[in-house]
Amino acid sequence: MTTSRMPFSRRNILALGAMSTAGLAGSVLSYRSAFGTSLPERGSSRSFTPFSVPMPIPPVLRPHAVHGDTDLYRLAVRQAQVEILPGTTTPVLGYGGDFVGPTILASSGRKVGIVFDNSLDRATNVHLHGGHVAAASDGHPMDLIQPDGSKYYEYENRQQGATLWYHDHSHGTEAEHVYRGLSGFYLIQDPEEKHLRLPCGSYDVPIMLRDALFDDDANMVYGDPTQRPTVLVNGAHQPYFRVARRKYRLRFLNAATERRFALNLDGVPMTKIGSDGGLLASPVPVTEHDLSAGERVEFVIDFGQHPIGTQLLLADGTLPILRFDVVADSVDHSRLPDRLRALPPLPRPRVNREITLSFDMSGDPVGLVNGKPFDPARVDFRVRRGDTEIWNVSNGDGEHGFHHNFHLHLEQFEVLDRDGAPPWESDRGLKDTIYVPPGSSARLKTRFTDYLGKYVYHCHFLEHSAVGMMAQFEVVR
């Protein structure tokens, strides 16, 4: 696989994440000056006509067998050549050779078993982000699938309907592997949602957002995450999506390794109905929504309010990234109810914990959690099964320091407050990933319900976790 890249090491990691929500902004310390790199900053000199290609819809993976209460799948992890920029081919790493990976449709209460075959020349693994799964199938960063090896993952789907995603989590290489294409949607469909009559079928659309830097040969350049000017929507650059005059359920995922998006739709209200962990208690109208790396949000957008011929631009701040073209009338039997789903009550907490994310910049950048880099031989917290805990997550790099976000494996959490003030609008619902700005903190409440074993928590700016900003907890009896 020929790519334009630097060797993956601490020295070529940007340990900053200082990306503005409107696109590319100046970082606290530039990658170029910090590490003396000579990577291109403007990317490819090719020009492309915006909104000239349709938005791809990731294919749905079909089970190869059904055994009782389990749907069985097999999926190869392999190199591929795909068309991302029109008229060119780009080498990628892909699940099934796809960029984006195929969507897996699961059902609450029904198991999914997947064999991943590693056809790459490097080790990989798979993490179901947002999944409530047994430790053996969580994709622990040290639980690797070696080249020519296979691993069976089993997901019991004992959680409510939600927009999840699967991606590589091999420690030290997770950032580059995800950047090169190892990610895909995993949607849990919940029978309890059917009475709500939300848009479904072809009107329920997953949309993956991410960024990239391309050279003149259409290779993706892996380097400074703040110098990735091309935004991809389901693997296409500035596509259009034809819609009918009716309601759509749109599931957005930020699969970038560090970028944050500020989504807006020409000032048109978007009705937020879901977050990382599934449906909210009730719909919330918004005109803009911030989405940090790893987070998901679900909107219902009613294109029936617009005449045929209308074109609406979805933008990241001021940067247009997707155009919706209203092209036809449609009968719409879906609805947007006033109430969606009550959040599960959490018992009184038994334990309070402090978690601080920071960098040691005395030499090569080293990511730290509570002052320590990741060590798979060390268990940082032991939590009792059944306990409810409050975790106070702080960005320890100072008011003008590095940006971070936080992801907890195994369980969803509720955001109680930020720096003693009410949570943000983007914190509504059950979460597993949140943005933590410089010098700030957030209190999270979660309950460790049933599975035992070792899991991790980390910054989901993946260049940060790759150099150590990750720690390990163990659920015990």
UniProtKB/TrEMBL annotation:
Stretches assigned to the Plastocyanin-like domain: 77-192, 228-309, 357-475
Keyword Metal-binding belongs to the record: yes
Record SUPFAM superfamilies: Cupredoxins
Keywords: Metal-binding, Oxidoreductase
EC number: 1.16.3.4
Family matches, as InterPro entries: Cu-oxidase-like_N, Cu-oxidase_2nd, Cu-oxidase_C, Cu-oxidase_fam, Cu_oxidase_Cu_BS, Cupredoxin, TAT_signal
Keyword Translocase carried by entry: no
Gene Ontology MF annotations: copper ion binding; oxidoreductase activity
Domain of life of the native organism: Bacteria
Pfam families the UniProt entry points to: Cu-oxidase, Cu-oxidase_2, Cu-oxidase_3
Record's catalysed reaction(s): 4 Cu(+) + O2 + 4 H(+) = 4 Cu(2+) + 2 H2O
First-tier enzyme category under EC: oxidoreductase
UniProt record similarity statement: Belongs to the multicopper oxidase family.
Assembly notes: Monomer.
Name used for this protein in its record: Multicopper oxidase CueO
Source taxonomy: Bacteria, Bacillati, Actinomycetota, Actinomycetes, Pseudonocardiales
